[in-house]
Amino acid sequence: MNDSLTVQGPAPAPGFSLPAALPPATSPRCVFVPALMRRVPATLHAAASLAASLLLSLLLFLGALPCTSPLAQPPVLPQATPQVTPQIKRIGYLEAGPFWLFDNTWSAFREGMEHYGDMRCEFPQDARFSPGWDPKQMQLLPELARQLLQRKDLDLVVGMGTAAVKALLAVNNGRLPILGMGMADPIAAGVVKSAHDSGVDNFTCRVTVDRWPSMFRVFYDVVRFHKLGIMYQDNAEGRVYAALDDARAIASELGFSLVLYNGLSSAESTEECRKGLNELHKQGMDAFFIGPLNCFDIGGDGIGPLLQTLTQWKIPTFARDGSEYVKAGALMGFSTWNFGPSGRALAKQAHEILDGALPRSLAMLDRSEPSIALNLAVAKAIGFDFPFDVLVTADELHETIAPPRAETR
Predict the structure, then answer these.
(1) What domains are there in the chain, each with its CATH number?
(2) Spatial distance between the Cα atoms of 374 and 214, rounded to a whole number of angstroms
(3) pLDDT digits (tens, 9 = 90+) for 178-230
(4) Measured between alpha carbons, how far is 355 from 283 in angstroms, rounded to an integer?
(5) DSSP H helical segments within 158-210, as ranges?
(6) CA–CA distance, 367 with 393 (Å, rounded to integer)
(7) What residues form DSSP beta bridges with 302?
(8) Residue 281, class by beta-carbon neighbours within 10 Å (0-12 exposed, 13-18 middle, 19+ buried)?
(9) Which of 1, 347, 357, 381 could hold 352 in an S-S bridge, CB 3.0 to 4.6 Å?
């Protein structure tokens, strides 16, 4: 009797066929079904064949495939995204002297730069210069500007204020990018060619168009004064800070006159400003424009007494730089400096420059609209009644006179 037996059972399930042979085992997942087929009794050949067919189908379904099958290989896990190391960028800084507006602009800019995770900025102390507003100290600006632009370890230089920017551009070597900030009117100062072109490949800034003419127009429409007093340094920067050309144009248009005092030095000390106010008062001024003068620095000691003098004279005042001055005792002003958005816009410019953009190619136009701030306590003290429509449309109404907050100093 022949011990070998050929099993001849029913055909496998439709769509399925048994392999003729399977490779030797090379992995625990390899399954070799032919061993199940050996020496099966003839009377069980049908059941054995069907069981083997079902078992093989089940094993294939569960993934127990031959080791040569690509489906039997270990799954490919996704690669972890490599962590990007931020680039280190070093930024130098030049200002003529300390001023509250400069400090707030600089802080907002640095905060804005922190939102960019692809670079980390350093601000070396030995690349930060602020010589001071005294005329002798101001003479140091050109040399300090030259030192900054000659350094090889900086990626960007910030010029804060018109005087600092002009000093940097005067010694510009075209190598380091220069970003201007805190300027009253870059176009009037001759710093840029237009609101859309800086005119210098490695320089850019933010530019506001027609804001100062609007300021004088609004002040006149509300107060209807006859003689507007303005103090300034008798040089190009001083006339720009005072928006003198705009004041003259609007005075001619609307029919009021200007009473001017140009006896301030670059220091713009409290004593100088007090003398200037006395001169303007003698000339019959009935309104006063508060420009960005050091004696009216919101962080200084002179602003309080000077504003009190103007209030005692019952002189309406308009503060170019807005809210903090109005809170401190100006009658009204433009809330022109919203430092958060301004800082983010400047940070965006800086980030694009540090990422390789040509400064001159960047957009400069600042389209933000100023808001109006009024002080009702000052109005009462000087005997002035705001028109109802002005009260309704004002963005800020202050009912007390308060000293500047500590964070503005």
Answers:
(1) 1-68 (no CATH), 87-208+349-361 (3.40.50.2300), 211-335+370-408 (3.40.50.2300)
(2) 16
(3) 999 999 899 999 999 999 999 999 999 999 888 889 999 999 999 999 999 99
(4) 55
(5) 162-170
(6) 20
(7) none
(8) middle
(9) 357
